[in-house]
Amino acid sequence: MLKLTHLTKTYKEKRIFQNARFEAELGEIVLLMGKSGIGKSTLLDIIAGIKQYDSGEYYYQETQLFPENDEQMSRFRNQMIGYILQDFALIDDYTVMENIMLPSLYNSQIKKSTAEKRARELANRFDLSDVLAEKVRKISGGQKQRAAIIRSLILDPPIILADEPTTNLDSENFELVMRLFNQLKQEGKVLIIATHDERILSIADKAYHVVNYKIIV
Ligand SMILES: Nc1ncnc2c1ncn2[C@@H]1O[C@H](COP(=O)(O)OP(=O)(O)OP(=O)(O)O)[C@@H](O)[C@H]1O
Q: Where does the chain cross the membrane (predicted)?
Protein backbone atom coordinates (compact mmCIF):
# COMPACT_ATOMS: atom_id res chain seq x y z
CA MET A 1 0.00 0.00 0.00
CA LEU A 2 1.11 3.51 -0.80
CA LYS A 3 -0.07 6.30 1.47
CA LEU A 4 0.48 10.02 1.85
CA THR A 5 -1.17 11.81 4.75
CA HIS A 6 -1.28 15.42 5.97
CA LEU A 7 0.33 16.43 2.70
CA THR A 8 1.05 20.13 2.31
CA LYS A 9 2.84 21.55 -0.70
CA THR A 10 3.34 25.12 -1.84
CA TYR A 11 5.39 26.66 -4.63
CA LYS A 12 6.54 30.03 -3.26
CA GLU A 13 3.15 31.68 -2.59
CA LYS A 14 1.06 29.19 -4.57
CA ARG A 15 -0.71 26.58 -2.50
CA ILE A 16 -1.13 23.17 -4.17
CA PHE A 17 -2.05 20.76 -1.33
CA GLN A 18 -3.24 21.48 2.17
CA ASN A 19 -3.52 18.58 4.62
CA ALA A 20 -4.34 16.24 1.71
CA ARG A 21 -4.47 12.46 1.81
CA PHE A 22 -3.78 9.97 -0.96
CA GLU A 23 -3.90 6.20 -0.83
CA ALA A 24 -3.50 3.44 -3.39
CA GLU A 25 -3.37 -0.32 -3.01
CA LEU A 26 -1.31 -2.80 -4.99
CA GLY A 27 -3.49 -4.27 -7.73
CA GLU A 28 -5.35 -1.00 -8.30
CA ILE A 29 -5.62 1.44 -11.18
CA VAL A 30 -6.05 4.88 -9.68
CA LEU A 31 -6.79 7.97 -11.73
CA LEU A 32 -5.86 11.48 -10.80
CA MET A 33 -8.14 13.98 -12.47
CA GLY A 34 -8.81 17.69 -12.21
CA LYS A 35 -8.29 20.97 -13.99
CA SER A 36 -5.05 21.82 -15.69
CA GLY A 37 -2.53 23.26 -13.25
CA ILE A 38 -4.29 21.86 -10.18
CA GLY A 39 -1.35 19.72 -9.02
CA LYS A 40 -1.63 16.27 -10.63
CA SER A 41 1.92 16.15 -11.98
CA THR A 42 3.17 17.60 -8.70
CA LEU A 43 1.58 14.68 -6.82
CA LEU A 44 3.16 12.13 -9.18
CA ASP A 45 6.55 13.82 -8.69
CA ILE A 46 6.08 13.71 -4.91
CA ILE A 47 5.23 10.00 -5.06
CA ALA A 48 8.32 9.41 -7.23
CA GLY A 49 10.46 11.33 -4.74
CA ILE A 50 11.44 13.87 -7.36
CA LYS A 51 9.72 16.77 -5.58
CA GLN A 52 9.87 17.69 -1.95
CA TYR A 53 6.81 18.71 0.06
CA ASP A 54 6.43 21.08 3.01
CA SER A 55 4.97 18.55 5.43
CA GLY A 56 3.25 15.20 5.54
CA GLU A 57 3.99 11.51 5.99
CA TYR A 58 4.70 9.08 3.19
CA TYR A 59 4.51 5.29 3.55
CA TYR A 60 5.09 2.44 1.13
CA GLN A 61 4.05 -0.89 2.66
CA GLU A 62 5.36 -0.65 6.24
CA THR A 63 8.22 1.70 5.45
CA GLN A 64 8.13 5.44 6.00
CA LEU A 65 9.87 7.33 3.23
CA PHE A 66 11.71 10.57 3.81
CA PRO A 67 12.13 12.64 0.63
CA GLU A 68 15.04 14.53 2.14
CA ASN A 69 16.89 11.22 2.48
CA ASP A 70 18.43 11.08 -1.01
CA GLU A 71 19.83 7.60 -0.63
CA GLN A 72 16.56 6.06 0.57
CA MET A 73 14.55 7.89 -2.05
CA SER A 74 16.76 7.06 -5.01
CA ARG A 75 16.78 3.39 -4.02
CA PHE A 76 12.99 3.47 -3.72
CA ARG A 77 12.68 5.23 -7.09
CA ASN A 78 15.04 2.87 -8.91
CA GLN A 79 13.56 -0.32 -7.53
CA MET A 80 9.88 0.47 -7.13
CA ILE A 81 8.86 3.15 -9.63
CA GLY A 82 8.27 3.21 -13.35
CA TYR A 83 7.40 6.73 -14.50
CA ILE A 84 5.83 7.60 -17.85
CA LEU A 85 6.48 11.33 -18.08
CA GLN A 86 4.19 13.76 -19.90
CA ASP A 87 6.90 14.93 -22.29
CA PHE A 88 8.29 11.34 -22.53
CA ALA A 89 11.80 12.55 -21.53
CA LEU A 90 13.44 10.46 -24.23
CA ILE A 91 16.91 11.30 -25.53
CA ASP A 92 16.58 12.34 -29.19
CA ASP A 93 20.09 11.28 -30.22
CA TYR A 94 19.82 7.81 -28.72
CA THR A 95 18.05 4.95 -30.48
CA VAL A 96 14.68 3.72 -29.25
CA MET A 97 16.37 0.61 -27.80
CA GLU A 98 19.02 2.68 -26.00
CA ASN A 99 16.29 4.84 -24.49
CA ILE A 100 14.24 1.86 -23.38
CA MET A 101 17.30 0.27 -21.76
CA LEU A 102 18.31 3.42 -19.83
CA PRO A 103 16.77 2.43 -16.45
CA SER A 104 18.71 -0.84 -16.51
CA LEU A 105 22.01 1.07 -16.57
CA TYR A 106 21.32 2.36 -13.06
CA ASN A 107 20.19 -0.96 -11.68
CA SER A 108 22.63 -3.74 -10.94
CA GLN A 109 19.92 -6.23 -9.98
CA ILE A 110 18.75 -6.88 -13.50
CA LYS A 111 20.91 -8.54 -16.15
CA LYS A 112 21.32 -6.63 -19.40
CA SER A 113 20.20 -9.69 -21.37
CA THR A 114 17.00 -9.98 -19.29
CA ALA A 115 16.18 -6.30 -19.81
CA GLU A 116 16.88 -6.59 -23.53
CA LYS A 117 14.61 -9.62 -23.87
CA ARG A 118 11.82 -7.80 -22.06
CA ALA A 119 12.38 -4.73 -24.26
CA ARG A 120 12.02 -6.80 -27.43
CA GLU A 121 8.90 -8.56 -26.19
CA LEU A 122 7.22 -5.30 -25.27
CA ALA A 123 8.33 -3.62 -28.51
CA ASN A 124 6.85 -6.49 -30.44
CA ARG A 125 3.58 -6.17 -28.60
CA PHE A 126 3.45 -2.42 -29.22
CA ASP A 127 4.47 -2.60 -32.83
CA LEU A 128 7.77 -0.81 -32.20
CA SER A 129 10.15 -3.59 -33.27
CA ASP A 130 10.83 -1.92 -36.62
CA VAL A 131 12.05 1.32 -35.05
CA LEU A 132 14.17 -0.07 -32.19
CA ALA A 133 17.36 0.90 -34.04
CA GLU A 134 16.06 4.35 -35.10
CA LYS A 135 17.10 7.55 -33.36
CA VAL A 136 14.23 8.90 -31.29
CA ARG A 137 14.28 12.19 -33.23
CA LYS A 138 13.06 10.27 -36.28
CA ILE A 139 9.99 8.58 -34.81
CA SER A 140 6.41 9.82 -34.44
CA GLY A 141 4.70 11.20 -31.32
CA GLY A 142 2.70 8.00 -30.85
CA GLN A 143 5.84 5.88 -31.19
CA LYS A 144 7.60 8.07 -28.62
CA GLN A 145 4.72 7.63 -26.22
CA ARG A 146 4.85 3.83 -26.60
CA ALA A 147 8.65 3.86 -26.17
CA ALA A 148 8.22 5.86 -22.94
CA ILE A 149 5.65 3.34 -21.70
CA ILE A 150 7.96 0.40 -22.45
CA ARG A 151 10.89 2.14 -20.76
CA SER A 152 8.86 2.57 -17.56
CA LEU A 153 8.24 -1.21 -17.47
CA ILE A 154 11.72 -2.45 -18.26
CA LEU A 155 12.66 -3.13 -14.62
CA ASP A 156 9.23 -4.59 -13.84
CA PRO A 157 8.53 -2.15 -10.98
CA PRO A 158 5.49 -2.56 -8.68
CA ILE A 159 4.44 1.11 -8.93
CA ILE A 160 3.73 2.69 -12.32
CA LEU A 161 3.17 6.43 -12.50
CA ALA A 162 1.83 7.86 -15.75
CA ASP A 163 1.29 11.51 -16.67
CA GLU A 164 -1.24 11.77 -19.53
CA PRO A 165 -0.09 8.46 -21.05
CA THR A 166 -2.71 8.27 -23.80
CA THR A 167 -2.60 11.75 -25.38
CA ASN A 168 -0.77 10.69 -28.54
CA LEU A 169 -2.25 7.27 -29.08
CA ASP A 170 -4.62 6.29 -31.87
CA SER A 171 -7.54 4.07 -30.91
CA GLU A 172 -5.71 0.84 -31.72
CA ASN A 173 -2.74 1.70 -29.52
CA PHE A 174 -5.05 3.14 -26.88
CA GLU A 175 -6.72 -0.28 -26.62
CA LEU A 176 -3.32 -1.99 -26.45
CA VAL A 177 -2.25 0.26 -23.59
CA MET A 178 -5.54 -0.31 -21.73
CA ARG A 179 -5.04 -4.07 -22.04
CA LEU A 180 -1.46 -3.74 -20.83
CA PHE A 181 -2.51 -1.58 -17.84
CA ASN A 182 -5.15 -4.16 -16.93
CA GLN A 183 -2.59 -6.93 -17.15
CA LEU A 184 -0.18 -5.00 -14.90
CA LYS A 185 -3.02 -4.59 -12.42
CA GLN A 186 -3.66 -8.37 -12.52
CA GLU A 187 0.04 -8.87 -11.77
CA GLY A 188 -0.54 -6.90 -8.55
CA LYS A 189 1.04 -3.60 -9.55
CA VAL A 190 -0.42 -0.23 -8.70
CA LEU A 191 -0.95 2.25 -11.55
CA ILE A 192 -1.42 5.91 -10.73
CA ILE A 193 -2.46 7.85 -13.82
CA ALA A 194 -2.86 11.62 -14.13
CA THR A 195 -5.24 12.19 -17.02
CA HIS A 196 -7.98 14.19 -18.67
CA ASP A 197 -8.90 11.17 -20.79
CA GLU A 198 -12.26 9.94 -19.54
CA ARG A 199 -11.95 6.77 -21.64
CA ILE A 200 -9.53 5.45 -18.99
CA LEU A 201 -12.31 5.56 -16.37
CA SER A 202 -13.57 2.23 -17.71
CA ILE A 203 -10.54 0.37 -16.32
CA ALA A 204 -10.07 2.44 -13.13
CA ASP A 205 -10.74 1.20 -9.61
CA LYS A 206 -10.78 4.72 -8.22
CA ALA A 207 -10.76 8.21 -9.66
CA TYR A 208 -9.39 10.92 -7.43
CA HIS A 209 -9.99 14.60 -8.14
CA VAL A 210 -7.83 17.41 -6.91
CA VAL A 211 -10.20 20.02 -5.51
CA ASN A 212 -9.59 22.79 -2.97
CA TYR A 213 -6.06 21.56 -2.25
CA LYS A 214 -7.39 18.11 -1.31
CA ILE A 215 -7.36 14.80 -3.17
CA ILE A 216 -10.89 13.44 -3.04
CA VAL A 217 -12.66 10.39 -4.51
N1 LIG B 1 8.63 24.12 -10.06
C2 LIG B 1 7.55 24.92 -9.97
N3 LIG B 1 7.65 26.17 -9.46
C4 LIG B 1 6.58 26.96 -9.33
N5 LIG B 1 5.34 26.63 -9.69
C6 LIG B 1 5.17 25.39 -10.22
C7 LIG B 1 6.26 24.49 -10.38
N8 LIG B 1 5.79 23.34 -10.92
C9 LIG B 1 4.46 23.53 -11.09
N10 LIG B 1 4.09 24.75 -10.67
C11 LIG B 1 2.72 25.28 -10.67
O12 LIG B 1 1.95 24.47 -9.80
C13 LIG B 1 0.66 24.24 -10.34
C14 LIG B 1 0.41 22.74 -10.46
O15 LIG B 1 1.21 22.22 -11.51
P16 LIG B 1 1.08 20.71 -12.02
O17 LIG B 1 2.00 20.56 -13.16
O18 LIG B 1 1.24 19.81 -10.86
O19 LIG B 1 -0.46 20.69 -12.51
P20 LIG B 1 -1.25 19.59 -13.37
O21 LIG B 1 -2.55 19.39 -12.64
O22 LIG B 1 -0.41 18.40 -13.57
O23 LIG B 1 -1.49 20.34 -14.74
P24 LIG B 1 -1.68 19.77 -16.24
O25 LIG B 1 -2.97 18.99 -16.25
O26 LIG B 1 -1.76 21.01 -17.06
O27 LIG B 1 -0.48 18.92 -16.53
C28 LIG B 1 0.61 24.98 -11.67
O29 LIG B 1 -0.02 26.22 -11.45
C30 LIG B 1 2.06 25.17 -12.04
O31 LIG B 1 2.24 26.34 -12.77
A: none
Q: How far is CA 188 from CA 25, 31, 183, in A?
A: 9, 16, 9
7 in ligand 1 pocket by Cβ < 6 Å?
no
Q: Of all protein residues, whose CA lies closest to atom 26 belonging to ligand 1?
A: 36
The residue contributing the CA closest to ligand 1 atom 6 is 11
From the CA of 126, how far away is ligand 1's center (Å)? 31
First-last CA distance in the chain: 17
What is the dotted CATH code of the domain comprising 2-216? 3.40.50.300
The ipTM estimated for the assembled molecules is 0.96
Q: How many angstroms does the Cα of residue 120 sit away from the middle of ligand 1?
A: 35
16-56 per-position pLDDT tens digit: 999 999 999 999 999 999 889 999 999 999 999 999 999 99
CA 123/CA 138 separation, integer angstroms:
17
Give φ, ψ of 66 to 5 degrees.
-120, 105
For ligand 1, atom 30: residue with the closest CA: 37
Structural domain spans, the chain: 2-216
Question: Which helix (H) or strand (E) is 14 found in, with range?
Answer: strand 14-24
123-167 pLDDT, tens per residue? 998 889 999 999 999 999 889 989 999 999 999 999 999 999 988
Ligand 1 centre from 27 Cα, in Å? 28
Taking 3-state DSSP, the helix, strand and coil percentages for the chain, each rounded to the nearest 5, stand at: 40, 30, 35
Residue type at position 109: Q
